[in-house]
Amino acid sequence: MKTLAAQELATVRRIIEECKGRPGPLIELLHAIQAELGFIPPEAVPVVAEGLNLSRAEVHGVVTFYHFFRRARPGRSTVSLCQAEACQSMGAAALSEHARQRLGVGFHETTADGRYTLEPVYCLGNCACSPAAMIDGELYGRLTPERFDALLAEDATSS
Amino acid sequence: MSRLVYVPRDAGALSLGAEAVAQSLRAEARRRGVALELVRNGSRGAYWLEPLLEVAGEDGVRRAYGPVSVRDVPSLFQADFLAGGAHPLALGPTEELPWFRGQQRLTFERVGRIDPASVADYVRHGGYAGLTRALGLAPGEIVAAVTTSGLRGRGGAAFPTGIKWKTVSEQAARQKYIACNADEGDSGTFADRMLMEGDPFALIEGMTIAALAVGATQGYIYLRAEYPHARRALETALAAAYQAHYLGADVAGSGRRFDLEVRLGAGAYICGEETSMLESLEGRRGEVRVRPPLPAIKGLYGQPTVVNNVITLASVPWILAHGAQAYADYGSGRSRGTLPIQLAGNIRRGGLVERAFGLSLRELLYDYGGGSASGRPIRTVQIGGPLGAYVPAGQFDTLLDYEALAGIGAMLGHGGIVVFDDTVDMARMARYAMEFCALESCGKCTPCRIGSTRGVEVIDRILAGEDGERNLKLLEALCDTMVQGSLCGLGGMAPFPVQSALKHFREDFRAQVR
Ligand SMILES: Cc1cc2nc3c(=O)[nH]c(=O)nc-3n(C[C@H](O)[C@H](O)[C@H](O)COP(=O)(O)O)c2cc1C
Ligand code: SF4
Ligand code: FES
């Protein structure tokens, strides 16, 4: 099995030290790893298990149970499109189809240039401004295919 | 003199460009040498008017402009909006808007009005009056007040809050917990988010009062990961509450301890179910626990735990401050007090309407909501999230209270109402309900885990024109099995939208021509 790069290993070890004294720390710890590394590298699982005195199966079970934790490196930006009912009532399906075409990937996939990962999400609490999306933690409402394209264009010029 | 101008930092307002408006206001004011003090408030809940900007007049009255975009900012200054000048976007005094005036805002009394980062502003607007009152009462008296108010859980199950607190207070245990359910996973709901972003101290105060009532010293807010803005608002408020000694070793000088922190969920809908939430808080997979024991007896780490929704807890300060009977005087039948209703989806004036129970769906959809956003007839609404029934237009005279909705086979849940116009395909919505259940099932019991996947397949066969009648019967039987055989409400209620679609919109379940 692959092992973590030295720097990633150091990050994971530091996070374990920061979290391990706290009650029920595993999910917090995984959040911290994902916040820094962008995902939970599979090679981190045994390190976390040992650090928290849990079995690998237990850590793996938690990582896979929660949709939010990803096991592969995401694109530079994550585009999450709401698929839930309120957004469906305002055209989320058409918007999602547009985004898939535009980016050339399906849900849970990353564009070949590594820029965008497309994800489905089930309600962003913006249901009075549907359809909604979140891009790198920023919330958007009343999205149309045109506005979606404009956001990508802004992103392209700003980076 | 510098003028107070309010531009929301509510996530919904930001999603429509409020941040750019705030920045442009600052820049334009600087350019013109005008003094202006910007407050980043929560949202008033009138989302069709967001970004909604307000100016506090010399008379203390706040006047609204909206929806404002960056393009409008220069013309607002030209019209001298700071002095109440006429402008096409001017809406007049915010609280005189007909939409606003009809509301009965108790739990949301401060949301959109105050600076959610400031304890001082909170206290100026009546905050911590409930805690002050509670500190003068015996724990049993606090519980009695909550019982008398008639408050029932706003998370969905509508269980009487006072009875839950009484159970926890009667347990002898060294450690008890208050766990706030801020998982708000239902589509069509955003009241928890608005409250946490717009008046986070109300939640903190409510949890502190709960702690005093039951003898708990530690609290957790289990917040869904999809709410980064609420997280920041809560973290800011928690730090301020600690600094002002409203949290910590000596709550408001009472000598009582209460510690509180935020814990993040990780995108699992089932973790809104209370026992799954407790598993998740302990750092495990969110698998539902078998009951009994109730969380009130053996909850977090096996200790007695109050689990309540954000809105339930945030309603408690008002009840203590104004009196249990004053709260109970609102409402209808056995549904006492007010309900923050969330109007969502295909609706012209979507947003938050807080009213006493007993308003009709029709009033809500047409008087408040102004009909559909698309201008087409409303065909149905789904009430109570993805596990709630679809209610057809013929039943829009039903009143919004727990019992009236139960009477038509629906449920109020967390008070979210998702509106669909006549272009909706109900077989597709039924399929989605099953698909969502399959996606979010914790996997513990077969009817839910396997049944939901079978449900998707059966609906696909119906739509493909394979043996329609037989498969419709099969779908109905499958729904019955899930309702009867599931351990928790996910598998147990996911059939409700399907059954209601079958009952009211059976014509949609026919072979689709490709
Ligand atoms: C599948 C499922 C999901 C739920 N999701 C939530 C939720 O997101 N927020 C919530 O407050 N309650 C939710 N509940 C209800 C909780 O189990 C519980 O009844 C509630 O948190 C108790 O608080 P209350 O009495 O203040 O409503 C859910 C229940 C089920 C069965
Ligand atoms: S009904 Fe579904 S979510 Fe609930 S316990 Fe069973 S498998 Fe888990
Ligand atoms: S359903 Fe899309 S934001 Fe709530």
Describe the protein's topology.
The complex is a heterodimer of chains A (159) and B (514).
Chain A: H1 6-19, H2 26-37, H3 44-52, H4 56-65, E1 77-82, H5 85-88, H6 92-103, E2 109-110, E3 116-121, E4 133-135, E5 138-140, H7 145-158
Parallel strand pairs in A: 1-3
Antiparallel strand pairs in A: 1-4, 2-3, 4-5
Helix pairs in contact in A: 1-2, 1-3, 3-4
Chain B: E1 3-6, H1 11-14, H2 18-32, E2 36-39, E3 53-56, E4 62-65, H3 73-78, E5 90-93, H4 98-101, H5 119-124, H6 129-135, H7 139-149, H8 161-170, E6 177-182, H9 191-198, H10 200-214, E7 218-223, H11 228-243, E8 259-264, H12 274-281, E9 305-309, H13 310-322, H14 324-328, E10 331-332, E11 335-336, E12 338-345, E13 351-356, H15 361-368, E14 378-383, E15 390-392, H16 402-407, E16 416-421, H17 426-440, H18 446-463, H19 468-485, H20 489-493, H21 495-504
Parallel strand pairs in B: 1-2, 6-7, 6-9, 7-8, 12-16
Antiparallel strand pairs in B: 1-3, 3-4, 4-5, 10-11, 12-13, 14-15, 14-16
The complex binds flavin mononucleotide (FMN), iron/sulfur cluster (SF4) and FE2/S2 (inorganic) cluster.
List keywords for this structure.
heterodimer; A: alpha+beta; five-stranded mixed beta sheet; 5 strands; B: 514 residues; alpha/beta; Glutaredoxin; Rossmann fold; Ubiquitin-like (UB roll); 21 helices; binds flavin mononucleotide; binds FE2/S2 (inorganic) cluster
Can you describe this structure?
The complex is a heterodimer of chains A (159) and B (514). Chain A has 159 residues and is of the alpha+beta class. Chain A has two domains: 6-65; 77-158, 3-Layer(aba) Sandwich (Glutaredoxin), CATH 3.40.30.10. Helix content of chain A is 47%, strand content 13%. Chain A has helices at residues 6-19, 26-37, 44-52, 56-65, 85-88, 92-103, 145-158, and strands spanning 77-82, 109-110, 116-121, 133-135, 138-140. A five-stranded mixed sheet of chain A has the order 2-3-1-4-5, with helices on one face. The longest helix of chain A is centred in the N-terminal third of the chain and has 14 residues, at 6-19. Chain A is elongated, with a radius of gyration of 18 Å. Chain B is built from 21 helices and 16 strands. With 514 residues, chain B is an alpha/beta fold. Chain B is globular. Chain B is 40% helix and 15% strand. In chain B, the strands form four sheets. Chain B has a five-stranded mixed sheet with strand order 2-1-3-4-5, with helices on one face. In chain B, helix 6 (129-135) runs parallel beside helix 10 (200-214) and helix 17 (426-440) packs antiparallel against helix 21. In chain B, 56% of the residues are buried. Chain B has four domains: 3-101, 3-Layer(aba) Sandwich (Glutaredoxin), CATH 3.40.30; 119-328, NADH-ubiquinone oxidoreductase 51kDa subunit (Rossmann fold); 331-421, Ubiquitin-like (UB roll); 426-510, NADH-ubiquinone oxidoreductase 51kDa subunit, iron-sulphur binding domain (de novo design (two linked rop proteins), Up-down Bundle), CATH 1.20.1440.230. Chains A and B meet through helix 2, helix 4, helix 5 and strand 5 of A and helix 1, strand 12, strand 16 and helix 17 of B. Flavin mononucleotide (FMN) binds at residues 153-157, 159, 181, 183-185, 270, 272-274, 307-309, 312, 488-490 of chain B.
